[in-house]
Amino acid sequence: MASIYDIKPQFQNMLRPVVNGLAKTGITPNQVTIFATILSIITGVLLALYYEYTIILVLIPIVMFVRMALNAIDGMLAKEHSMKTPLGNILNEIGDVISDACLFLPFALLPGFSPILVIAIVVLSIVSEMTGVLGVVIGASRRYDGPMGKSDRAFIFGALALAIVFGFTHHLTITVILSVTLALIILNICIRIKRSLKEVDEHGV
After folding, report:
1. Gap between the Cα atoms of 147 and 191, Å rounded
2. pTM assigned to the model
3. Could you tell me the residue range of the domain that residue 150 belongs to?
4. Ranges assigned E (strand) in the chain
């Protein structure tokens, strides 16, 4: 199914000059990954502390975009500049789920947002990424299938944050959006499991 992840190759092409420059200065993928995670943690803490000031939600789409770029950059540094390491893989996977949790959980404090739905989205997002990683464990590839993959979730919460900044706080609409997001994450998990098993079957593992 369609996902924002599908435009990753074009996004990478735009970032390649930056990646090449970083590689020349000695920046490593792990440094980029750690920076992205710290940025998300700091942003999440600020949101949790100052959520009553609606304008602070402007940080969400900005940080989401920067984080998406950093995630692409660390992967390109690792693959295209021979910097791939086992530690990097671990940091990348752990950093992603920590960053998502830090950036999404403060929404549970906002008026119009169901804390139960927000927490469920965070928990199932972690399950989704774990399911993707488990593809490798059983002999398939790391699954990034959509719908509602990492980039899609970032887009949804970034859009919601901007909508609230501009005065949109309709409780029912927000609940519907969160409910659909949750349902699509569940579908995402099922698709990743199915395709991982199919891939193992096809390769006779």
Report:
1. 9
2. 0.90
3. 4-203
4. none
% residues pLDDT > 70 (the chain): 95
Closest C-alpha among 3, 2, 9 to residue 79: 9
pLDDT digits (tens, 9 = 90+) for 22-55: 999 999 999 999 999 999 999 999 999 999 999 9
Pair of tokens at residue 1 = 């199914």
pLDDT digits (tens, 9 = 90+) for 66-86: 998 999 899 899 988 989 999
Q: Which CATH number does the domain housing residue 123 bear?
A: 1.20.120.1760
- Report how many domains make up the chain: 1
The model's pLDDT over 120-135, given as tens digits with 9 standing for 90+, comes to 999 999 999 999 999 9
Prior bond to 17 cis, omega within 30?
Answer: no
